[in-house]
Amino acid sequence: MIAAPALLGRGKQMPAAKTKRDALLGLLGEHPSLDYIPAAFFIHFDPSCHFGQAAVDKHLEYFRYTGMDFVKIQYERKFPPIPDIRKPQDWKNMPYYKLDFYQPELEAVRGLVLAAKKDALVIVTLYSAFMCAGHSAGLPLLTDHLHQDPESVKKGMEIITGSLMLFVKECIRLGVDGFYASTQGGESGRLKDASLFKNYVRPFDLIPMNEMNRACRFNILHVCDYNGPYSDLTPYVDYPGHVVNCNPRLTTTELSWEEVGRMFKRPCMGGLDRHGVIASGSPEDIAKEVAQVLKQATGAFILGADCTLPNDIRWENVRTAITAAHGFKRT
What is the pTM of this model? Predict the structure, then answer.
């Protein structure tokens, strides 16, 4: 059964004695609490709201309007392009960005922890070293360099990882509850030899993820298909993260959420196509789609999308999907 949007916050969608923090943390125990289905969707805000107090205000506005169940801080401090990286040997000259580079983003993190942590988990997005390397030199060139001379590229990955760890540790010091850790590089056809992923992508994913797992209570592993689909998710099954967010539609098959849950042995997040009904459907269509997804999603589950929603999406659509999840009753 789906509750109408007007019923958000009423009935038994979330017990009054519980905060959103309690509800999300309740998913992680041996016997997860399933009082209602939590939900969260993410968008990139206008550049004027990327950093500082403007970012704090916009994140809070979106969180409150949509009724989502945790605050997820968008990461907007991309590594700038480095035109001087032209051949694999140039990766040794990758700049090492110190903590001052991240200060605009950290101002948003600090403000949102202070404003929202008492009521909801505050999760900060982190892009992987592979993704940051792609931002620095372009994904096609990075891929070519890994095929040509991975040991030279490794020097750049080490520099990037050292810089990212400054950001991770400072976010932990500021009090975030966890990270939304994005990983790429294992997409179908990306790296022709599986050993390249194993030896030159995975180790640099795991360094910050292991630190997050050590220090934080609620981390989400995001296997990101923004740049292409996956043929196999098994390279990620032992990655850290309390929850997994991925697209179960692979190149040759589609996994059920039950299969994904068994594979990763943890709660799952997802269910809606970021370009599908939530982006352009009617309220009735969105509620119907949510019900279909949740009927098939057994166990501890958070309704979400496979990746970030289109920037121009109507916030009303997001609120409709979240309200439908909150009102869904498992039979």
Answer: 0.93
